[in-house]
């Protein structure tokens, strides 16, 4: 089983785990331990020297966490993975690993707010500069690359406007310049998009979202296609910065991942039904969804994603006041940031996730005051549409 190539859904359930190695336990055991006891002083010395495999201390590795990492590596078609205590711990570890003072990071315009905050810290304190640019053509990408660019960092679809970035194009140009590419794949999940297959170097996730899928864990994952490099990060940045995941959270993620394909299919189906409904609503102006045929980047979305996913953004006529009124009238749909949970969530980017972005930049990014983002959950879409309908009639 371990080395056999299997379909992705099968990998989500089996990869990285052998029950014979764990007292025949069907479910992955939870090794809730901080440290590991050595049989002899010499054995401890061998483990510290890396001459013998086995537990040392859970910040350096834990058997439950290791199953999660091997499973995630298989799920993203990579060679190695590292699990972290949050998506931001994953982002910061990879950026610290890839850069040194004087280097430059090129990013898509529209990145996760805390990633933007991290880039500013790197710039102010460690002389690692960055630019945010629209990277939608070969010319634009070439023009944005500087002599000291060491990393292109992208998100696609871009939050919350669902702009699509052509991963293959970026990877091709970056390779020519020997620049590493990192993709934050949180919005798509490994089920819908696999950037390593398209030529990038690292994929990362806020596993808080679709990977866990149940709204009860904060966690992050980095997957790479060079096992040695991943192990170097484990024994440097991850070990010494210490942003590791707890064994219990890893255990919950392993449990969540087993149903990821089933959940993503339902998130996507529900989202498609909601998009169809929103198109009929007079007070909805624009709808942003990757697989909507009116999306200008529909073709690129089809090329690199196997489904449109569970996130929809739309603008309400009347701006902030009407958008907030709609939210307040909802009864079933919860007002909350985050995404990828069983519960359908709605948030107002201008005053919530993107409130730190200066107004001018925010509007340039298409994040208007009337924009709302829906993370479509796993409820029956009839009830979700009913809830939206009754709220729209109050506007
Ligand atoms: C949530 C999120 C993050 C940060 O992850 P945490 O688990 O909250 O630390 C990073 N990138 C994207 C796209 C996210 O949605």
UniProtKB/TrEMBL annotation:
GO biological process: methionine biosynthetic process; transsulfuration
Pfam families hit by this protein: Cys_Met_Meta_PP
InterPro entries xrefs: Cys/Met-Metab_PyrdxlP-dep_enz, Cys_met_metab_PP, L-Met_gamma_lys, PyrdxlP-dep_Trfase, PyrdxlP-dep_Trfase_major, PyrdxlP-dep_Trfase_small
Entry EC no(s): 4.4.1.11, 4.4.1.2
N6-(pyridoxal phosphate)lysine sites (modified residues): 209
Cofactor: pyridoxal 5'-phosphate
Catalytic reaction list: L-methionine + H2O = methanethiol + 2-oxobutanoate + NH4(+); L-homocysteine + H2O = 2-oxobutanoate + hydrogen sulfide + NH4(+) + H(+)
Keyword Transcription: no
SUPFAM superfamilies assigned to the protein according to its UniProt record, in alphabetical order: PLP-dependent transferases
Keyword Membrane (UniProt): no
UniProt KW keywords: Lyase, Pyridoxal phosphate
A molecular function (GO) term: pyridoxal phosphate binding
GO CC terms of this entry: cytoplasm
Sequence similarity: Belongs to the trans-sulfuration enzymes family. L-methionine gamma-lyase subfamily.
Protein name: L-methionine gamma-lyase
Species name: Psychrobacillus lasiicapitis
